[in-house]
Amino acid sequence: MARLQRATGMPAAATSEVMRRRWSISKARLAAPGAPAFVAIALTCLMLWIPSRATGAAGDEIYTQPGRLVAIDGTRLNIYCMGSGSPTVVFDSGWEDWAPVWAIVQPRVAQWTRACSYDRAGAGFSDAGPMPRTSVRIADELHSTLHAAGLNGPYILVGHAFGGDNVRTFAVRYMAEVAGMVLVEADVGGLDEHRSDDPLIASLKECRRAIAEGKPLPLLPTRPGAPARNCAQQFFRGLPEQMWSPELNAKLLDLAQTKVAMYDAFISEMEQMSTDEFYLKQHLRSFGARPIRVLSTGYHGIHAIDPTQPKTAEQQRYEDDVARAQARWLALSSNAKQLFITNSSEYIPFDQPDFVVDAIHQVYAQTVAASVAREER
Fold it and tell me: Tell me: the pLDDT tens digits for 170-185?
């Protein structure tokens, strides 16, 4: 989940303020020397239209219970692996999300290689982990979990939204084990962007207190024509999620209504985002010729497209700024492309999963071909 809360119930005034700040910050940040011109992005990007909507996540009942709990120093992480082959595709989720966000994409990738998603410490079925929840700690825990589970590299890293920070950090620290990377509408960050995080943290803390004390859960702001929702329904892009089975929705809501450690983890993750972004700026590392795909939607921070509310000119400028910022990651590799899809919210794994699967397969195919070429030399 990106920090904009349009679909999870942030009041309209608060959402407007977040967007206003993001636009103004983006203008200043992306006007800095070295920001690529949008025409340059166009030369390196693929414009795609995929008209069909996603179908539901058949077989998503596997995410209603732990997959494999792997013990590492300080915690146990829950990991779901399916398929076989190498390189292994490893998925990390956005903020306030965990493994089920990949319930449609992961089984499709598992048709041609091993695919693993997991719950970060505190989230889903994973145990609570040491604090603070920085991307460095998250990356190190993921690395330890993969090795403890006997899942050695190379890895294709796939990160959605905030998960992009985590997989980029993983690559910085363990590049020798990385085969490639796919960034799925990943957050672009910016130190000043987090001025609007305080209301979200306060809301999470209020919900956490209610759960810990056994009190009624605070309600989310009402939506016209929609039933009332409590604060435990704010996760992902709002529970229940139409792409999931009733069984999975029920289990996720149960976790959200009872697991205090999950709130602690997400609160700490948001509090550490500026630190995470600073770390990445200070530790730029080349991918060489490893393939990278950067997926952009033009709907960053928007969880569901409302065709009755087209983007304003100011919103479009903001989205263009985000796309430019995402394009900076193309400089990390000599084999990087930015791919656009224009009929998906930031939740591409739900709205257009084939777009994500195809990007992963591009990276996979190039990685396998390069490996074969090396062996034939």
Answer: 999 999 999 999 999 9
